[in-house]
Amino acid sequence: MNFFLHIALLFAPLVVLHAADPPKTPPKKPNIVVFLADDMNRDYPGFNGGPCETPNLDQLAKEGTCLTQFYVHSVCSPTRAAFLTGRYPFRNGMEERSHGNDTAGMLSDERTLAQALKQAGYDTALIGKWHLGNWYQRQLPLQRGFDHHYGLYGALISYNGKTRGQWYDWHRDGETIREDGYTTDLFAGEFERLMAARNTDRPFFYYVAFNAMHSPYDAPSALVEKYRKRAGTASGAGKKASAQELATLDSMDTAIGRMIAAMKAKGVLEKTLIIFFNDNGGSNENPPFRSGKGSTYEGGVRVPCFIRWPGHVPTDKTVDGMVHVTDLYPTLLNLAGGSLEQPLPLDGMDMWDVFTGRKPSPRTEVVHNLPGGGTGEMGEMSICQGSWKLVGKALYDLSNDPGETTDLAAKNPDIYKKLNARIQQLVAERRPPEKHMNIPDKPLLVFGEHENAHPPAWLQPYLDSLPGAAKAKTQQK
Length: 477
Ligand SMILES: [Ca+2]
Prior knowledge:
Elements: H1 3-19, E1 31-37, H2 55-62, E2 65-71, H3 76-85, H4 89-92, H5 113-119, E3 123-129, E4 148-152, E5 163-164, E6 167-168, E7 171-172, E8 175-176, H6 183-197, E9 204-209, H7 221-228, H8 243-266, E10 272-278, H9 298-301, E11 305-308, E12 317-324, H10 328-335, H11 352-355, E13 365-369, E14 382-385, E15 388-391, E16 394-397, H12 413-427, H13 449-453, H14 459-465, H15 469-475
Parallel strand pairs: 1-9, 1-10, 2-12, 3-4, 3-9
Antiparallel strand pairs: 2-11, 4-7, 5-6, 7-8, 10-11, 13-14, 14-15, 15-16
Helix pairs in contact: 6-8, 7-8
This protein binds calcium ion.
Calcium ion binds at residues 38-39, 76, 214, 279-280.
């Protein structure tokens, strides 16, 4: 027998044994797909025991690892900025959202995950909502590392009309476009087109940021009927989830199912790491946690998150350690074989060994919000170290009191003092945001300075044809 063959056979059983274990060193450069829901209540989807039918999300969650202590920020833009920069909003200029008529966006010197993954050889696309600057060209997705963008720059658009008030907000690659249809379905269609058109082996990063299930709730009438007919869709500490809300989420689940099918058809699904999370606590109560969107109580900042990559991330598991949305940046960039060398220091930590269940989370602190940022829309100042959490002037022990009902500040003056001192130290590290000023070009037809300066001929007549157009104009003058 050939010596090398003999040696190979000798070690063959070992090789087989190890093939069943997830590899210690992850394979480099998986495709990365991030599904981000908007304002989803934690107890609505099926995989969290909710009344909404979400078979596709349920299946993905079951095939992956769920993080039970995953933190975002309490409103939209701060979370999106933290995800894309690996840095807290008090550093990247996004403690306050870009409002409708607003020129401010995320600070321009921030390096985004899309830029970093592009440098690592990825194709990058944002399908959906941006909300990190509505106006100047330099703020928009194509200038922040995305090869392709389809969807909206801001927030709060109507699902069919694509307007916020009387302003239009629907674009493909920096052009104002008219496409009839329901936003959630259109995102699925765009994903299918991108997937079908791929003719390269380069890895991809597709960030799919739904406007669902943010208000103004709207969904296809047949779906709304389906939920209207059901009695007792109790949710949110006794509040009944409305048929519109549930139908909006149901649609999102169907869209995700279409995107999974598109990846399967292309033969790339098993080479793809999928992450799902929600951008802030739902706008109702989020049991078992206190409060919701706009609050730094757990209900506002602790959201469902799961990671799916069979063979690499355990299936049907939960991980209980503390993870913050900034951690995705270094984790994903390391998986992509990218570089973390950059002038702006990261708040995020590589969590691959946590996601794979090999090690407990190394994170000991999460900063939810500092005092004095913007209009204060992120809620009361709050920081958590271990199980101790400061919210405004109250101190809670999450290990015994995850519902944050009992203020222990008076009984634990040293911890209270220590957390307050840490807050003050971080306030000194804050970087000033861009100035929030009104968009100067009026009348404004469409978001994006360049696009508003060159509106397509159909736009004004289209806006005038929308129901309530005259009223919206008067209100938003
Ligand atoms: Ca949101």
